[in-house]
Amino acid sequence: MIEIIKTLIEALANGFPGIRGMREDKRRRQLGAELFLLYAQMNQLMVTAEDIVQHLEDYAASMGRYMNEGTEGRGPEYGRRVRHLVDRQRDDLLHVRLLLDSRSAVVQIIEPEAYNRLVPLLGLNPDPPA
Question: What single DSSP character describes residue 127?
């Protein structure tokens, strides 16, 4: 009886050798998707940061014209735009922090220098999760 069970188990294990590879491929695809999402989110951070800087530069130029020429400045309008962008940037930073924290070990292996520079900026725990 034991021999029959053993033979059945061996037949099943040998009959489906691709199952393990399929699971590993699925995990790799999932990891790739998560890392791409992290990359895209970090690019969004850069775009938003550039928008914030541009709006602040426009505001400074507008206020400079107001002070030098007496023309009407657009202070409140710039303030609302910058406030919205800063709020969005805060939310995006928190999202990147969560994404990076969940895959910190992988990112440390792939790009340790970049990870080490991001740790203090995002307030991450520099030790990989156990």
Answer: S
